[in-house]
Amino acid sequence: MANHILANLPNSPGESQDAGRMSFFDHLAELRTRIMWSAGAIVLGTFVAFSIAKRVLHILEIPMQEALRNAGLADKLVSTSPTGVINLTITIALYLGIVLASPIVFYQVWLFIAPGLYRHERRGISIFLFFSVFLFLTGIAFGYFIMLPYLIKFIIGFQGDILPLFSINEYFDMVLIVFLGLGLIFELPVLIFFLALFGIVTPKFLWKNIRYAILIITVIAAVVTPTPDAMTMLVFMVPMLLLYFIGIGVAAFVVRNKRRKAAAQQGAS
């Protein structure tokens, strides 16, 4: 995918692409090697993560426990299955293993695509990977410190006179949905970057259609937010709007950069 995208960028003189000399079967063999290294890193990371999985589970419980204490309730989550906690620990270890192995996985991806890239394109991919990971982790942090407390407070308050007993497995499923959803939503500037790179959107287009963007963001927030609470939905919408404005700035940078390169090419010819 990166090769296809960055192939549209101008090539620097004197640079060569070694991947062009590789045959189709060489590419397949190289891909298999990178997949095996990545899979091995994930397996090793999962074994390492298993030793800290319970500690991470306790960290994930903190927002729910604080909300339960504030509501005057026992700050304990329940397990409705004999093997519920064991299965959850293994699941958390797997997810943590993927996170721990991600630098190696990204490095293997880099080794696979780098021979087909020019020098300036390699720098672009490095920046792209950094900001993609940074924005995804920022979305998870936003979910843990801001979104979850609002969400859990509403859920507990909605119970009324009914005594809530929250299953640890179902709670983790909710946390995972929130983290994954926000992590992907925080990738909006990266998505706009690619759309601007292909010429599909421009800063003027994004600004002119901002009212439609707000409408779409409102609909997404209403669908993704697990509760009908207006305050929780607003907390979800605000970062999406900020990311949209950041995306406009990213699109302006891409368009300005493309115009500068086009002008330099015309001057050289």
In words, what does this structure look like?
With 269 residues, the protein is mainly α. It folds into 2 domains: 24-186, no CATH class; 187-269, no CATH class. Helix content is 77%, strand content 0%. The chain has helices at 2-6, 24-49, 53-70, 84-113, 119-158, 168-185, 188-197, 203-208, 210-224, 230-268. α3 (53-70) packs across α5 (119-158). It starts with a helix and ends with a helix. Residues 1-20 have low confidence and may be disordered.
Q: Estimate the helix proportion, in percent.
A: over 70%
User: How much is the average pLDDT?
Assistant: 84
Radius of gyration: 23 Å
- Share of residues in strands: under 5%
Count of DSSP H/I helices: 10
Brief sketch in words of this structure:
With 269 residues, this protein is mainly alpha-helical.
What attributes characterize this protein structure?
disordered N terminus, mainly alpha, 269 residues, 0% strand, 2 domains, 10 helices, flat
List strands and helices in order, with pairings:
Layout: H1 2-6, H2 24-49, H3 53-70, H4 84-113, H5 119-158, H6 168-185, H7 188-197, H8 203-208, H9 210-224, H10 230-268
Helix pairs in contact: 2-4, 3-4, 3-5, 5-6, 5-10, 7-10, 9-10
